[in-house]
Design brief:
About 35% of the residues lie in helices and about 20% in strands. The protein is built from 9 helices and 10 strands. By secondary structure, it is of the alpha/beta class. The strands form 2 sheets. It has a 5-stranded parallel sheet with strand order 3-2-4-1-5, with helices on both faces. The protein has a 5-stranded mixed sheet with strand order 6-7-10-8-9. InterPro entries: 4pyrrol_Mease, 4pyrrol_Methylase_sf, 4pyrrole_Mease_sub1, 4pyrrole_Mease_sub2, rRNA_ssu_MeTfrase_I.
């Protein structure tokens, strides 16, 4: 009986300025050493990461399939075909852990349905790292993804998260497209109550890392410039 390859979930650094040797365990490097088939969001950055973590890896041996918002669902089967030929496959996000706020979740689901073993490897998750450093409720929290773009819908979403945090004692996390960060901060400070706590976690694990938790009233006195900087926002009304 032919051996079925495994699907390895390979974490990557949270930004191009992070040294992979400092934020990733040796198990990731060892896995890259024996995996030649990859599912990635961007081929160029994936090759750059592989070269950084294992310079001896021969780039011509790599077989990369691209999974992004333009990928059709019917293509997922092809991504996992190497597993049924006995090869292991690595799934990589553009930043952080695959499958979390990431299109790779659909491939992981398919792997389970096809009986392919899924192997998660340890690495940086901006969601968990932000939660760890926020000082908010790590026993109960919710990641809500991106806020609505429409101004009215965004206001309603923020007020709803504030209400939920208070009623359920549940920290509420969300993100924004980096070039909209500064506008989001303005909206948060206008919409939420002065006593609500806000954690801003920016450039996590990078040399420019910035993480602070303050009340909305306190943030109004010090608004950081987060333009084009990957950030996580957490609110909690105690």
């Amino acid at each position: 009986m032919k051996t079925i390859g495994k699907l390895y979930l390979l974490p990557v650094p949270l930004g191009p300025d992070a040294n992979p040797k400092e934020v990733l365990p040796e198990t990731v490097e060892r896995s890259v050493e024996f995996i030649d088939h990859y599912i990635v969001e961007n081929e160029k950055t994936a090759r750059r990461f592989i070269k950084a973590i294992l310079p001896t890896k021969k780039q011509p041996d790599l077989k990369l399939s691209v999974l992004n918002k333009r990928t059709e669902a019917h293509e997922y089967d092809d991504f996992l075909k190497p597993c049924f030929e006995g090869f292991n496959v690595g799934l990589m996000s553009e930043a952080g852990c695959p499958g979390v706020a990431d299109p790779g979740a659909a491939v992981v689901k398919l792997a389970h349905e096809k009986g392919i073993q899924v192997v998660p490897l340890v690495g940086p998750s901006s969601i968990l790292l932000a939660m760890m450093t926020s000082g908010m409720n790590g026993q109960s929290f919710a990641f809500n993804g991106y806020l609505p773009i429409d101004k009215g819908e965004k206001k309603n979403a923020l007020k709803n998260y504030e209400r939920l945090s208070n009623e359920k004692s549940q920290s509420q996390l969300f993100i924004e497209t980096p070039y909209r960060n500064n506008k989001l901060i303005e909206d948060i400070l206008q919409i939420l109550q002065p006593s609500t706590h806000l954690c801003i976690a920016c450039d996590i694990t990078l040399p420019t890392e910035y993480i602070k938790t303050k009340t909305v009233a306190q943030w109004k006195k010090e608004k950081p410039d987060l333009h084009n900087r990957p950030s996580i926002f957490i609110i909690h009304k105690f």
